[in-house]
Amino acid sequence: MDLTPLLSWACIVFTVGMFSTGLTDLRKMRESKSADNIQFLPFLTTCLNNLGWLFYGTLKMDHTIIVVNVIGALLQILYIIMYFLYTKQKRLVTLQTLAAAAVLICGWLYFTTFLTEGDARLQQLGLTCSVVTVSMYLSPLADLVAIIRSGNVQVLSFPLTVATFFTSTAWVLYGLQLNDYYITVPNTPGIFTSLIRFYLFWKFASTSQSLPSYKPLHV
User: So where does this one cross the membrane (predicted)?
Assistant: First the structure.
């Protein structure tokens, strides 16, 4: 039985749902007319990651990867624009955005000019996207250590944790179905970090006496 169509839809639904959690921050910014206490870099790095995977999906002609990352990139661009409108640190945000644009342009030139057509370009692009994705999943580990020490899980988002778990699982299974380790390997850490967060919720949620609040991107 070919599970590829089912896994494809699961990847699309779960990933778009995970990206949509940023709408909570968007609502907060609009209501408060401020971007205080909201992180900007997760929006920017996720956008770069989406564009990288979009290029990979285009080269591989994988419609699932293309659809997911087109939607993801558009959402992140929306978050970036709204953040810029409401932040007081417009100069810093502009510099960070220009730096990200420079990285994107350099990457585009490298993969389109210096690499020949074919498997070599696809493999190097897949490896680059995988490294970025793994680093995004593992970057909040320091925050998890701090949570273990403090016993406070209010900075974690339970809905985002659930979305990350199902999204990572769907992509791992999809990658295994296609025998594409550039999809399978980078999403595996997302499963383990989600399980760690589930454990932290189970252990500390009763002592927090409140529902966890939202913190953007893979915490």
Answer: 6-26, 38-59, 65-86, 93-113, 125-148, 155-175, 181-202
